[in-house]
Amino acid sequence: MRLSAADYFRGALLRLDEAQRLYEAERFVGAVYLGGRAVEALLRAMLWLHGGEQEIGHDLRKLLRRAGSLGLPSARDEARILDSLQVLAPVWHNNLRYADRAAFERLLRATHRQQRIGALRIRGDFVRANAKAVREACEAIVARGRQVWKRSSPS
User: Which of 59, 68, 101, 85 has the alpha carbon at shortest distance from 142?
Assistant: First the structure.
């Protein structure tokens, strides 16, 4: 199935909404996974809109760098996007879709995210705290992408 840039953009918005619903249902691993997919879809939409190459895998940092080279939301000139990506990228992987809570906890421990997320000290459920931080990071990236999309898209 071939998808257009607009399909990817709409998909990004849908995945973000689904991630929010999973978070509210306390399905934190699924929420993190779909939040990351929303960001990936948004970046792919921007790349396609501007004729960029699509086959660069699922590495969000690479996708953001590529989008930045096209003058889209980039780490170079948007500190908030970079900060948001720093929250998301260490714990988001395409194969997270297969992980259960125990596997996600192991990943968080391996990345030292059971006590802190950047400067934020975690109290209580560290899986919930990470899911919340990732959700907020994804919302920030998609919100910025939405602004760029409105300026850039032909429709």
Answer: 85
Helices (runs of H) and strands (runs of E) counted in the chain: 6, 2
CATH of the domain at 22: 1.20.120.330
Are the C-beta atoms of residues 108 and 32 closer than 8 Å to each other? no
Coil, helix or strand for 36? helix
Cβ-Cβ contacts under 8 Å for 1 (sequence gap 6 or more)? none
8 Å CB contact between 142 and 38:
yes
pLDDT reading at 75 higher than 50 = no
Q: For 15-60, what is each residue's pLDDT tens digit?
A: 999 999 999 999 999 999 999 999 999 988 888 877 765 666 777 8
Domain that holds residue 88: 5-152
| Cα 150 from Cα 146, distance rounded (Å) | 6
DSSP string, 84-120: HHHHHTTT--GGGGG--HHHHHHHHHHTTTTTEETTE
pTM greater than 0.90: no
Give the number of domains in the chain. Answer: 1
